[in-house]
Amino acid sequence: MRRFYCTAGAGMEELLAEEVQRKLCAIEVEQIPGRVFFCSNADLHTVTQLKSGERLFLLLHRTEPISLPNNPVAKAAGVIQQSIVGDPDIWRQTFLTWRALQTELQYNQQRGQKRKRKEDGEESLDTLSSSRHLDGHNEMGKELDQHPKSFRVSCRCSGVIARSYTTQILSRMIGMAIKEQLGWKVDLRDPILEVNVYLSDDHCVVGIPLLKHPLASRCYMKHNGLRSTIAWAMTSICPKQLNDCVILDPMCGVGAVLLEAAQEYSNAIFLGMDTDMSQLQKAADNIKAAGMEGRLQLLQSSVMEIPLADGVVDAVLCDVPFGRKFSCSIDMPRALPHLLREMERVLRVGGHLVLLLSLQLSAQLKKIICTHEHNPSTHNQHTNSSDIHSGNTDPSNTHNECKDTPKTITFHKSCSETSNTPILISSLQAQRSHKVSLGNTDAFIQVYTKIQSEKQTQTH
Ligand SMILES: C[S@@+](CC[C@H](N)C(=O)[O-])C[C@H]1O[C@@H](n2cnc3c(N)ncnc32)[C@H](O)[C@@H]1O
């Protein structure tokens, strides 16, 4: 069984751990901040298809955190030799495993290219077996070579060690120790093998990257939108599988969320809407680049008035704009109640609403959530909100509010443009709230399920 680890954005570790268990049947799954370790026998192609990780590594070894003496440097070198390099046999063995995996990757790549050429009518698949034979020969030739022709060390560190040593000095010291102990040749420019070392107050991890490019870079995205791992997380966090479902992103931008969802669910119907025609054009380019024409439909329209009947959508996934990069013409805190009410309206009972929101918008959402316990006075004060709701209403959705409903979302009409009276939606049940990092800012993925409950009402 091979031992891997993946780096992950802050907040993505738990989702990555779930993904490796679900897709790779991985065992010994362990997460630390920024990394998930696992063992798996899955074929390499499947491992490289992971969606929530950033970079994929073969684990060389993990030891107790090291502490380096400041002075003299020779003493620090001794600790590095002993703790980071350790047993040379492990390095040789891991190198051989890495090389075998590279051969497997190369073979998969060649096979993919040949299959594509065959689909384009350029080549026969018969040549594939001979190619495998050829690869085998190459591999046999390489078997004699027990060492990488060259290597380089990339070290990242944090905590106490980072206060005394720069990553450059550490990388050089570790490189020297490997060279001395294993006789490998250093090449800083174009090495065959990259050795990654991560040192913190709690961890010492040594690994070899398996791919040149990050897992997180998607070949099917021509125009980048929301970070691919987060877009994928919005689908994966949904409490239910979305096969045979209608999935809507009413503010789809370049389509990142829908394209990630489409990778997971091959037989769902996807609808993307946006007011901005140039964004929709980019989404169309992305759909074409991903070969998904016909599976994703795009429409220019506003989330404030979704042109769909009530209860026809199984899941609404939406990255609500915030921050400078994605600011838009609407005043989002003001528009939020209306926007949510429209999304709720088109959702069927049992359907899911997954929103990516800034911490501020999330706080706004949370403030207006009322439960029976916290705000019992609101229960007898509901009136029908159809007077302020421009979309369709479905009388069959009007029920008395369930006594056991754990949470409801209340939209204060003070935020709305029509009155100062709060609006209450009693049909969205909070399922999960997950904090993620978007690089220079944090956000929440909030998950709700639509339940049978009282129709949207407003308190007096
Ligand atoms: C945060 S971005 C979406 C990013 C998207 N997830 C992506 O990966 O490209 C928000 C999008 O909402 C769109 N938008 C702004 N106001 C809108 C409205 N009233 N109705 C629908 N879309 C709107 C913007 O044009 C923008 O493309």
Which properties best describe this structure?
12 helices; seven-stranded mixed sheet; binds S-adenosylmethionine; Rossmann fold; alpha+beta; 19 strands
Structure commentary:
This protein is of the alpha+beta class and 460 residues long. It folds into 2 domains: 55-209, THUMP fold; 228-458, Rossmann fold (3-Layer(aba) Sandwich), CATH 3.40.50. The chain has 12 helices and 19 strands. It has helices at residues 13-24, 44-47, 73-85, 88-119, 127-143, 160-164, 167-182, 228-236, 256-264, 277-289, 332-346, 359-367; strands at 2-7, 27-32, 35-40, 56-63, 151-157, 193-199, 204-209, 246-249, 269-274, 296-300, 313-319, 347-358, 369-370, 383-384, 408-411, 423-425, 428-437, 442-450, 457-458. The strands form 3 sheets. It has a 7-stranded mixed beta sheet. It has a 7-stranded mixed beta sheet with strand order 10-9-8-11-12-18-17. Helix 3 packs across helix 7 (167-182). The radius of gyration is 27 Å and the shape is globular. The relative contact order is 0.10. Bound molecules: S-adenosylmethionine (SAM).
